[in-house]
Structure prediction request, 584 residues.
Amino acid sequence: MQANWTYIVLTLCVLLAVVFAWQEYRRVNKRNLTLRMLAVIAAAAALACIALPIGYTGNVAKMAKHKTILLTDGFNADSLSAVDSNIVTTEVKVKQAYPRAKLINSTDELSRNSQLHIYGYGLSRAGLQDLDSLPFIFHPASLPEGVSHISWSHHLKAGDAMQVQGVYNNPSSKKVKLVLRGLNTGLDSVTLAPKAQTTFNLSTVPKTTGKMVFTLHADTGLQGYIPVEITSTEPLKILMLSASPDFESRFLKNWLTENGYAVALRAAISKNKYNSEYINIAKLSLDRLSTQMLEKFDVVMGDLSVFSSLSPGETDALKQQVADKGLGLIVRSDSAGKASWLQKQFVVDKPSGKEPAPAQLIIDGKKSAVKLSYGPSHIVYQNGTLPLVKTTQGGVLASSTLFGSGKIIFTTLNNTFSWMLAGSKQDYTALWSALLSKAARMDNVAENNVEFSGLPFVNHPVQLYVARGKASPIAINGQTVASVQNADIPFEYNAMYWPTSAGWQNMKENGRLGAWYAYAENNWKAVQAADKVAATKKYAGEHKITDIVTKQIHQKVRIDVPKIYFYILLLAACTFLWVEAKLS
Prediction:
């Protein structure tokens, strides 16, 4: 067909050239006859070249790129081009969602002679190690809705508050309610703003001991499990010093009693005469504070005026126990005018003017549910102190500082019993649990310290970091696991383990028993995604592509002559013939 078209065009153009050339030859005026004949032939030739494909064959050097696309969970199909051909994945569910992708067994099958692009959430830390420093370009996906970061203390003492902190990613336009649950009961909750990444803090005080598993729920469903191991311990032994009976001391004594604390109370009757009470503790003489007597307590608490009125011998004994033995002190500010060593780090400012209105307080980072009238006094922040209770405007109402091996906590709050009168036992409990836990002597009982590079999930390799004094076998679920000593931290040993079932994993090391929890793969989905994105970004930043893998190809190709040249030639020839006829 192409050949026939060529013959037809050539025949027609030749006939046109002959006819128009004969017309020019027949003209009476023979001036510029040669130029006119050439113009007719040129016009016919240009017309033929416009109608026919005119080209030539030449050598062209091309740079051919090799590109491999690795799809991971969370990838967006719209980010892929229709011309992308070498698309692979190691995940079955990605293959099901995008059939064009080729399923490979592992990243070991990726070619090092191509430019690698990774789409989605990326690879886990173990998957990145398998790449063996292979560089790539990362195209991260947006994080899914849910808890993207989470932390809590996996080991608690009985009576300690469990704090669950994290970040929730809420891209939707609706608010989300986050609920901490235990034994099918809601324990704490918070409502999170729409279209934002919001930090949250939930807390509860577990009532039982042993291994417990709490859950965290959102409007979108279960986020994940929160395993905690709670060990029983002797109740804190608290010595309360009182200059005179008052509501604050009375309510605090009752609350301590209800919560199982061991309490001894010394109240002054007159000079050097005291009234003593003993609750959950054996009787002992409280007439004089001595180092031997103070060793029997974990926390001493009272008004500043009481501590200021102690004899020099009692003051020395108190200092020695705090500095050398870790005894904790909780000091309540009052109107005592005598300078005290206890207030050296805590300057109290009492501005004149109207007393502030009752307001919510920030207790160890969490806002109270009920407002409290806290008075005009507040503590001026100084270096070396740690604020524990603040107003919403930032005023410090309770602060802590180190004194040797012990701690001193100073507070200007003197009417927290108002919470109990208002029925807000939760806020009262949160305040005094925080102050007592911060002040108490440190427990010197040695425990296994096991940490992980991330949350351990079933059917995935788990890297354990075990802190111990000497080398000894590590057994997990009865299986001995090899460990390697950390070259930089001599007392730390690393071990790798693959949990095959979700739940508690029993561990024995150095003759001591312990346990840790392996999560099901459908737990903490947003946490897993955020961890992969962060690890993959870090890897990509450390292993950047310095050159693009290409090769030069020389090949013969047909190069078409642009038609514009023939249009110009046709226009020029016709213009010449028209002008020449007009001027003749």
In short: The chain has a mean pLDDT of 85. The longest strand covers residues 55-65. The CA atoms of residues 87 and 100 lie 7 Å apart.
